[in-house]
Amino acid sequence: MGYRSQLAGCISVDTMRVEDERGSHYFDYDRAKFKEMIGFIKLSRFYELWQINNTADADSFGWQNGKFILYGNDWKWYPDYDDVKAWNELWEQMQSIEGISGYFVRVGEENDDIEEMQFGDDPCYDHFHAFSALSFDGEDYLGKRDTDEEGQTEQAQTDTQSHSESVDSQAQA
User: Rounded to whole angstroms, how far apart are CA atoms 13 and 157?
Assistant: First the structure.
């Protein structure tokens, strides 16, 4: 088996405030820089390894509107694995490009095993965030036991018998 993680990352072209001919403002990204960023990612070792090694439907990546986003579930995220090394190399290289930002989060199996990294002026963490979760598998214990007349009758008899035995043992002492 082994230790598994869930992970998500985003590398994006920083948005900029743009004014249109009517004086209205909106935010947009540099399309030429985005094309350059995606070209760089496609040439990276990470892109090649991801396509070869990831056939699970839950693992995916893609890009649009100035953002490259990846998501992986049930990953063995060890620093010496090739795909992890390749992601870290890509992450480091992207940090040296002006106008590019990034956000990455990995959640492991342990409660306190959350790793977050970010760089740039406009990290795109609006698509995902880490949170704590609870898995509960005790449903068979739940229910409306207080309306279960047979169970109440049996419990009352047990309680009465226990009380009588306790009183008898105190009287004998």
Answer: 72
Interatomic CA distance for residues 10 and 61, integer angstroms: 9
Beta-carbon contacts of 58 under 8 Å, excluding residues fewer than 6 positions away, are: 71, 72, 73, 74
Report yes or no: 8 and 127 within 8 Å, Cβ to Cβ: yes
The 10 Å Cβ neighbour count of residue 127 is: 13
Q: What is the pLDDT of residues 92-116, one digit of tens each?
A: 999 999 999 999 999 988 878 889 9
**Cα–Cα distance, 137 to 150 (Å, whole number):** 25
pLDDT in tens, 122-165: 878 777 777 766 677 777 666 666 655 665 566 666 666 665 66
Main-chain dihedrals φ then ψ at residue 64, nearest 5 degrees: -175, 160
Q: What is the pTM of this model?
A: 0.69
Closest CA to 67 of 123, 7, 6: 123
**Where in the chain are the domains?**
5-119, 143-168
Tokens of 133: 């979760």
